[in-house]
Amino acid sequence: MDNALEVKGLTKKYGEFTAVKGIDFSVLRGEIFGFLGPNGAGKTTTINMLTGLARVSAGTFNLVGYGPQQIKKAQQYIGIVPDESNLYEEMDGFDNLCFCAALYGLPKVLRAEKAKRLLKQFGLEEAGNRPFKANSKGMKRKLTIAAGIIHDPKILFLDEPTTGIDVASARQIRKLILELNKSGTTIFLTTHYIEEAERLCHRIAFIVDGNFIRFPMLFLCGLFIPVSRLPVFLRPLAYALPLTYGADLLKASINNAGQLPLWLNYVVLICFTIFLFSFSIINVLKKWLL
Ligand code: ATP
Question: Residue 262: enclosing H or E segment and its boundaries?
Answer without folding.
Answer: helix 262-289
